[in-house]
Design a protein that fits this description.
- The chain is built from 16 helices and ten strands.
- With about 400 residues, the protein is α/β, with parallel strands linked by helices.
- The strands form two sheets. It has an eight-stranded mixed sheet, sandwiched between helices.
- Helix 3 packs parallel to helix 8 (about 130-145).
Length: about 400
């Protein structure tokens, strides 16, 4: 991620944490499987095989990590993908425009400018800078034109149906802040209740099992009704940058990309904070729970190895987005309304893009430590909100 995108991500997570009061539900860890899981598997064939057992495979996408995004496009281009998958459910997709999206993906006469609203007009500023989605939607449209009707893919938008033409203040955004609820609803209504097979493409902190503030993240929410249907895959984050040993032979390294499962493996016994920058949540009694110390086993099912960690690349902002001054002006307005960290002018925003391009290698900051003072402040705020909620008449 660029420094700016990381600040936006951290601020967004912190706001969500402070605004939610429903505690995290604790559930048993997912069952372990055989010791054969410790053997790395060629990633594309392994993921396609997973759809035989699971209805959903979830992967992180479009969060500034170019190698992950390129891998996903390769996965979707696999000739066997349409035989295994019905739907692609996306974070960068405004549910308000689903009918336009359906017509575009089906090959109807919908202009690229019209369908751009699907990913440019979401609640998330990162979507409006993503080159991945500018490639994904046309790719699936093109693939469908060569597929028989019964095998054509559908893309399902899962972000809340915000209408930015009616948003003038932060207060106007509040009905659209429960993004995990919107994702879970889309998954239940469009995929799981219909017994369809889906590839989920979201930030990893929407995808973990038994995780998240309040009612939990998206997968945690829908797994209460549809348990055991989803296989969650994460990138390795910053693991390996300090010469941490990966359980991969030199021969396998030359074959990658690889899928490294967490059940019954050394990776599964490591903590989430060894891989990803995490922010704490709160349990039912308002105690601060730092996921950084939780084993990856039970939170996610596998890691994706794409090559040496110190040579992965970050995604750049496409020129057509930067040159669209009208959209970029509106993009900046939305950032400022939402209260997210943002440069004061469009010129400075573009300057950050130019500065970021000087170093194309991906960097990811480690989790900042949670001080006792900060944990105490969060706990007290949670208790105060719970007391106010209890005092309200039914």
């Amino acid at each position: 991620m660029t420094h700016y995108r990381w600040k936006t991500f951290a601020r967004c997570c912190a706001l969500t944490l402070l605004s939610l009061i429903v505690p995290l539900r604790c559930e048993a860890q997912r069952s372990t499987s055989s010791a054969a899981d410790d053997v790395p598997k060629p990633a594309i064939s392994a993921i396609l095989k997973l759809f035989t057992t699971y209805e959903v495979v979830a992967l992180p996408a479009a969060h500034g990590e170019k190698d992950e995004d390129d891998f996903i496009l390769s996965l979707i281009r696999s000739p066997r993908f349409p035989d295994k998958v019905n739907d692609i459910v996306v974070e960068c997709g405004n549910r308000r425009y689903q009918s336009i999206l359906d017509r575009y993906i089906a090959g109807e006469n919908v202009s690229f400018t019209e369908v751009q609203h699907v990913w440019r007009d979401t609640t998330q500023a990162m979507c409006g800078e993503s080159g991945f989605y500018e490639e994904l939607y046309p790719l699936v449209r093109s693939l469908n034109q060569r597929l028989p009707a019964g095998s054509r893919l559908r893309i399902i938008a899962a972000d809340p149906p915000i209408d930015w033409t009616k948003v003038k203040s932060f207060e106007d955004t509040k009905p659209y802040l429960d993004r995990d609820g919107s994702i879970a609803s889309a998954m239940e209504d469009e995929v799981l209740s219909r017994h369809r097979k889906a590839l989920m493409l979201f930030g990893i902190f929407h995808l973990l099992h038994v995780s998240g503030s309040g009612q939990g993240d998206a997968v945690t929410r829908y797994e209460r009704h549809f348990p055991g249907k989803t296989f969650v895959i994460s990138g390795l984050g910053y693991y390996g940058l300090n010469n941490e040993r990966l359980p991969i032979s030199k021969a396998a390294l030359e074959v990658g990309p690889l899928l490294l499962e967490t059940n019954n493996t050394g990776l599964g016994g490591l903590s989430l904070g060894d891989f990803l920058p995490t922010l704490p949540t709160m349990d039912r009694e308002c105690n601060v729970v730092d996921l950084a110390h939780h084993q990856t086993r039970g939170l996610l099912d596998a890691f994706l190895y794409l090559g040496p960690q110190n040579s992965l690349l970050k995604e750049t902002v496409p020129a057509d987005i930067v040159l669209d001054q009208a959209y970029r002006t509106e993009w900046l307005r939305r950032q400022q309304i939402s209260g997210m960290p943002a440069p004061p002018t469009l010129a400075e925003a573009n300057g950050e893009i130019v500065e970021s391009a000087k170093n194309p290698v991906l960097t990811l900051p480690h989790s900042p430590p949670v001080s006792e003072q900060m944990a105490s402040r969060w706990r007290q705020g949670c208790l105060d909100r719970a007391r106010i909620q209890q005092a309200k008449p039914n």
